[in-house]
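Table 4 source record.
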Amino acid sequence: MPLIVATAALAVATPLTGYAGSTNASAKVTLQTSYLNVLGPITASTGTTSNITSGWQVVLEQAIKMANNHDLLINAGFEVGLLTQTTVSSKNMVTDTSTATASIKVRALVDGVEAAPGEVVYGKRTQTLSATLEGAIAGCLSLITNSAGGLQIVLNTNCVVPEVIGLLDDSVSANSFLFAAPNLSSGFHDIQIQARIDALGDNQNGTFTATGLMGKGTMTAESVRVVKDPVYPYILGLE
């Protein structure tokens, strides 16, 4: 019986600046980092039409004291690991397909409000394996005499053993993204980095495993004044 595993690892987050309340001055930059896995692994190995998900989890959190009408730029960087494994089992030229999908999304919240641009996909992979195989026919052949008196080789299809093909792909990469919260009022603001791991798959006669893992992470938040409505915005042309 395939298993579904959803295990959240503990995070050790180390703030490199103290809570902003320790001083009356506004802070320019704050930083926090985690040295251990902050979320996962989340694994799906039973076919389903809905995701096996961790839900949104706070993986890093820090506070900053800002001056009036400043903008907040938040950079969140994490190691993200994806593992997808699929096998197919086919015989008698019948196609078999298995699919595994794993994804990791991140968002930033400032005082509980989602910062622009919203959810960001830090890693995603969909792996599909399909095969049409004849099967292992050793021991399934017999020699008979046909109605014309000649010899004929006959295959017992009930004896054929399926052939199996497997594919595994495991990767870890470090990704970051810049989030923005404009025109914040003076005072303390709470910054949360949340992450969500989703795993999904489907299989016929084969198997699949889809796993997502979020490793070490760092968050920096900077209070700035961003130029509003530049006269000459940079626009990417379409070819």
